[in-house]
Each structure stands twice: as C-alpha cells, then as structure tokens.
Design brief:
Blueprint: H1 2-11, H2 24-29, E1 34-37, E2 41-44, H3 45-61, E3 69-73, H4 78-89, E4 93-96, H5 103-113, E5 115-121, H6 125-131, E6 140-144, E7 159-160, H7 161-166, E8 182-187, E9 197-201, H8 202-215
Parallel strand pairs: 3-4, 3-5, 4-8, 5-6, 6-7
Antiparallel strand pairs: 1-2, 8-9
Helix pairs in contact: 3-4
C-alpha cells in the first residue's frame, strides 16, 4: 500500500505556477461573465480564452518563439488583456511599453528589452514613425485600433490585429514550462537616470495575484473579493503588475 501511494505521488501533476492557470477558475465557473472595454467591446471569459488562442497563433505565425519579447503600445483595452495572457503563455516575454515616457525613453526601453514584435495602437503612429529608425531590434509591427480603418502612416505593418485574429485558430497548445521563466517586463519612469527594467516571472505574478486576492477586503466591514463582484482597474496597463487581479 505504501509503495502504491509513492507511485501515485510521483506521477502526480506538478502544477507549475504559470499565468495560464489563472484562467481556469473563470472558464470553469463563470465562462459567460463579461469583461467590458468602454462602450466599445464586451466579451465573456470564454471569448477571452478564444481570442488568447487566436493571438498566440497569430504571433507564432509572425515568428514569435519562446524567449522572444513582444511589446504592446496601447491604452487599457481588451487587446492589452489578451496580450498579457497570450504572450507569456507562449513562453515569450511581454513588454508593457510605457507610452507616457519621452520618445527617447520609449526608444531606450524597447531596445533594452530586445522587443522584436511591436503591437501599436494607431494613436501612437506619429511617435513610432519618429523613432522607428532607432528601433534596431523590432522586425515586425502590428497595428491595433478602435477605428474601422486604422491609421498606418508610413509604417509597414505585418497586419491589423483584428484581421490577424479572425484568420487564426482559437486552438493553441499552451505547454507547461519552468514557472520561473520570465513572463513580463516594464520600466520605471527614469527619474534618477535611464528607465530601469523590472522583470517578473510566471511564479511571481501568480503568487502576487493569489496574495492580493487573499488580502483584499481585510478592512473592517469588507468581505473578500468574490467572483460575482465587479471591479475597475485604475492603474494603466503598462503598470498592470500593480493590480494583481486575474
């Protein structure tokens, strides 16, 4: 009997603390609960998972591989949320580009992070056009927009975000890997020199999320954060690491 218990324990799933695990509860218990982006987009957790798979397949087709860095220049949109899951779940690294930095600092952070694919909201086309010649590691640009016809300037884009997703399969095999793998990077505002890179592993982000969920509501008269609650993130997505809610 003891030998049988040891055999079962050794074959048990080790459950690495990967960002993809944060999707399981929502998918299993509240797949129809909505995520709202302004008055422009409503999607359920099931639709979110579908779009995450489509984005991963789109990025893979563009040549993104584990260890590559994908940058996002966007506001707090559903697309940013999708990238925050899809990119690290592929084993790649998400750079949340701080669009509030100066053009020189934006250039520095993108180059320092080694970003090879850049998703660009068309509101930042002018900025990207001005610094494009200095982005020595970016090989691919993807335009994202809230408009029916995105602005593209004189940048050669590999595609438009929604069109790429529409042409991709939602099925993507997000494999397990070391939970200490780097998941994201963002940069400080450089108040004492150049912006400083801050890196997070899958394990750190999952534990941060669980710790914040456990601590939320500890003030007198408050209950714990519940799946039926509605919350609005205030921190900009390029500092989303401060939020911690899945």
């Amino acid at each position: 009997m003891v030998g049988r218990l040891i055999e079962v324990a050794q074959s048990a799933y080790q459950y690495p603390l990967l960002i993809k695990q944060l999707l399981h509860t929502g998918m299993a218990r509240t797949p129809d609960q909505q995520i709202v982006y302004r008055d422009l987009k409503r999607l359920t957790y099931a639709e979110l998972r579908d779009r995450i798979g489509r984005l991963a397949n789109s990025l893979a087709k563009l040549g993104v591989r584990p260890g590559d860095t994908v940058g996002v220049m966007d506001w707090d949109t559903n697309r940013f949320l999708e990238a925050f899951f899809a990119v690290p779940m592929m084993g790649a690294v998400l750079q949340t580009v701080n669009v509030r930095l100066s053009p020189e600092q934006v250039t520095y952070t993108i180059n320092h992070a080694g970003t090879s694919v850049l998703l660009v909201n068309d509101e930042f086309i002018g900025l990207v056009q001005d610094i494009k010649s200095q982005l020595n590691k970016v090989r691919t640009f993807v335009v994202i927009s809230d408009r029916a016809e995105p602005e593209k300037g004189n940048i050669e884009f590999a595609g438009e975000y929604e069109e790429l997703l529409a042409a991709a399969s939602p099925e993507y095999d997000f494999a397990d890997f070391d939970e200490n793998t780097q998941a994201t990077t963002f940069y400080t505002t450089g108040t004492t020199g150049l912006p400083k890179g801050v890196y997070f592993s899958h394990r750190q982000l999952v534990l941060h999320t669980l710790a914040e969920l456990a601590a939320f509501g500890m003030a007198p008269g408050q209950g714990r954060f519940h799946r039926n609650d509605v919350y609005m993130p205030i921190a900009p997505m390029f500092h989303v690491h401060a939020c911690g809610f899945p």
